[in-house]
Amino acid sequence: MINIQNYVRAGSLEEAYRLNQNRQNRVLGGMLWLKTGKGNVHTAIDLCGLGLDTIEETEEQFSIGAMVPLRRIELHEGLNAYTKGAVAAAVRDIVGVQFRNLATVGGSIWGRFGFSDVLTVFLAMETEVELYQGGIMPLERFAAMNYDRDILVRLIVKKTPGEFVYRAMRNQRTDLPVIACALSRTGEEYKTVVGARPARAMVVRDQRGLLSGGLTEDCIRTFAGYVAETVPTGSNTRGSAAYRTHLIRVLTERNLLELGGMG
What we know:
It contains ten helices and twelve strands. With about 260 residues, it is an alpha+beta fold. The longest helix has 19 residues, at about 240-260.
């Protein structure tokens, strides 16, 4: 467990950022994964007083504050109408309702965990992150960055017309995923995101145009094989690399069949 020496409820993003420059200090987020770690924290920085716990929807985008709990995005009607339920599907098996009432979007995205359903599903959309100092950048770029001492303010999801599907394989419900696969089609572009591989989620696009002729069973099998060959996998206690590669092929096929109305 961790030992916290001081607690500060930040009065501004500037104060939170300044405190976070000390490597011995930590931003709390929902504190659900943080508390499972070990070591000493000099000052715990709480962002709960900064108004970052709301989802704002306009005709062009969703703005999701870093302190929004996962349960809120699971139940948000606008977000799930836009994603055809993909967001709810991505988070509904994360431990339990009590956990999702506490775990935050910001903590999940900032952590860039290899097992993250949240990072996987938002990478399938046209998503940006807003950092206090770093400004606004694509989530895909942020996901590949090393950790620094900036503050994640919000996610920005553009309402680009598209279709979205999400599937994950778990050894048992509420467990961490063995593999997670999100799929999107925006215009003529298909994008697959594979998480829990077990490294950070990875984006694969149809650069070979394997699906350019439409979703036929042969094209779907070919593209699923391409994704499985492209995505590196590893082994851990939940599954072997070979098993994960097999699951990538299977879940990608199922996502495409659903997208094409064949599933």
